[in-house]
Amino acid sequence: MESGNGSSVTKFILLGLSLDPKIKILLFQVFLTMYIVTMTGNFLLIAAVKTDSRLHSSMYLFLSNLSFMDTCYSSVIIPRMLIDFLSSLKSISLRGCLIQVYFYLFLGETECLLLAFMSYDRYVAICNPLRYHVVLSIQSCARLIAVAWVAGCLLSLIDVYFVYKLTFCGSNVIDHFFCESKALIQLACSNVFELNIVILASDAVVLLFPVCMIAFSYVNIILTIVKIGAKSSKPFSTCVSHLIVVVLFYGSAIYTYTRPKESVKDSANKVVSVFYTLVTPMLNPLIYSLRNKDVQQALRKLRR
After folding, report:
1. Which stretches make up the G-protein coupled receptors family 1 profile domain (predicted)?
2. What pairs with residue 160 in β-bridges?
3. SS3 letters for 93-145?
4. Range of lowest pLDDT (98-107, 143-152, 254-263)
């Protein structure tokens, strides 16, 4: 049976996190709870930003987009994983696998760029506060968000196109709980040189460029705070939440995508993948709301 791109493999088997039935039931309960918390927390944050006029600023527009992105990111992977915990046959078609790879890359790459733009927002707010509303008006913020979404969409389309061109003719077992791109590429029979070049170019855009922008922003923020002296605690507190999110997301992404290909089947990769597909999206609204009095007040209004 031939697939649309001429390969002999039309279905893949996802090994998941565990083969033990008892552990699978336990994991199902844990991840279902975490997924519900993720969706609830992020939707509450979006609702708080939308309904409270005090939060109608560039910083909170970025934040509500991050929450929306996190709900989508988790929903691309977690519901399918929950179904697989209860299923004896964890098969997924080649087309379904490519679709999952596309949305996983699209949302992940978009989030990388969005976090970089959020660091620039904090840089302008602290280092050039008098021009903040000119440089980062709502319109300017919306343009940056649009750039992140469009760039993520186009880059992931290019990546998936080159994955689609690959031939899969050997093993169809993916040692992961979803169609993770590196694990899928490991199964290819054809030459992956072109794809590796494309991946390097994408990494430069969605990892190297954002990391440089974040580093530039926070170096200047720290220098500015040092000059402010005793008054530095208040402006710095607005950056701490974002910096925690950056470390969590980029730390897990860099760990996964800068390791040699021989480590793809390492169980640590699965654990780290759980971290950036579920744990980080679940923690993001908690991190931002716990350190932000305006968000806390908006959430209290929602409960009334």
Report:
1. 41-288
2. none
3. EHHHHHHHHHHHHHHHHHHHHHHHHHHHHHHHHHHCHHHHHHHCCHHHHHHHH
4. 254-263
